[in-house]
Amino acid sequence: MYDVAIIGAGVIGCAVARELSRYDVKVVLLEKDTDIANGTTKANSAIVHGGYDAKPGSLKARFNVEGNAMFDKLCKELDVPFQRIGSLVLAFDHEDMEAIQELYERGLINGVPNMEILDREQVLALEPNLSKHVEGALHAPSAGIVGPWELAIAMAENAIENGVELKLESKVTKIEKLETGYQIFTDKGKVEATYVINCAGLYADEVHNMVAEPSFRIIPRRGQYNVFDRSVGDFVQKVIFQCPTKKGKGVLITPTVHGNLIVGPDAEELDCKESMETTMEGLGFIREQGRKSTENVPAHAIITAFAGLRATPSTGDFIIEEVTGSNGFIDVAGIESPGLTAAPAIAIYVLELLKNSGAMLQEKASFHPIRRKAIRFMELTDEEKAELIQKDPRFGKIICRCESITEGEIVDIIRRKAGALTVDGVKRRARPGTGRCQGGFCGPRVMEILARELEINITEVLKDRSGSYILTGPTKIDTEIEESFGAVAAAKEQ
């Protein structure tokens, strides 16, 4: 019997898990997919928002500003890339300037620090590549950029180091109420817990409906993005927004913490919660809209595109509450933008709800907030590199030429708590495959390393989700490879 079961290992579920790991409680984190951060968390704008956009008095407004202020300390503890570069909301006419004034006043109410309204000359002095048609902008220095999946993975890793149990490929299919808690049925058996935290993202409404009458809907809203090569990563220095609409914050242009540039998203409401494909129409739309901010978007440097789904709530605000008639069952649903920014503050609030529901949360002296630093070989000094290669020669072997990632780094992120189990899992943690060739050269070597480290046949290596096999078998029989696969299979049987 667990004290708390968390359903969903996106950035919200991982934030709650880490916060709970401070206390003397038995916690399990359930995830239906093959990895952490495999839903909305892996495909978004990667922005830490300032907080001027949300309606004053809303949960979005409160937790955006509170969460934003926590990122410096949090990312330092967890060794997650974060840069507080600031944002600009651009105005192109008198109507836009009025909208920016409204955002400024809303930001003051929400508690956003150090905002200012800039004129054309000030904007172009900061960002000379922007359109000369700009009239002014709202500047929010507190905004930033972060590695979203890296943050979720780091929080999960730290939570596991502090006692949380992770169960992957454990899709929740049914929940039954017990006299003291809940019985949760998953693909991998049953779990019992006194308290349940529903952080199921796009499926939070369906999980809610397992214990109560429907009270909200989650609407999948697809957003598509273009990713640009690092050679143009400094095209803009800040997060560049256009004036927001009812569908979102518009098409943005922003650098990433790894030196790329992204442009997007569009906003398309869908019926399917798994529609992650990109479309010619959507990508054409974001390129066209991006030209409003700057006529010189470096389209020649696009290296890939991706799509993500936002969990848009029918209520218009975050849903964070204990479910009426289901004591100890807490919904954390509809966490769309600025959910990434709000995550650490939401986690603290969820613990308050647990306490109000009767949970005894006693801090444990053994909690350690510092995650072991990730090894980024190319950021080391020559002396540090030589010392590391002396200890482990695999750090002297480059696997990904585009991003200069070594075999030692890949082995390290596979062997960590909540380590990589798939090709995309390696990609999210150590970045092989994110460069100009998009894995064309390093992909096969990453597969070989995964097969070796996980002691599986290379045909069992997944790209990402369950069933996403890359290889089905050899085209020619290689006796040495066949014998090594046979040895692995024999060892597993023993």
Automatic annotation (TrEMBL):
Coiled coil: none annotated. Keywords: Oxidoreductase. Residues 3-352 form the FAD dependent oxidoreductase domain. It is an enzyme of class 1 (oxidoreductase). Residues 398-452 form the BFD-like [2Fe-2S]-binding domain. GO terms for molecular function: glycerol-3-phosphate dehydrogenase (quinone) activity. PANTHER family: GLYCEROL 3-PHOSPHATE OXIDASE (PTHR42720:SF1), GLYCEROL-3-PHOSPHATE DEHYDROGENASE (PTHR42720). This is Glycerol-3-phosphate dehydrogenase. It comes from Anaerosolibacter carboniphilus.
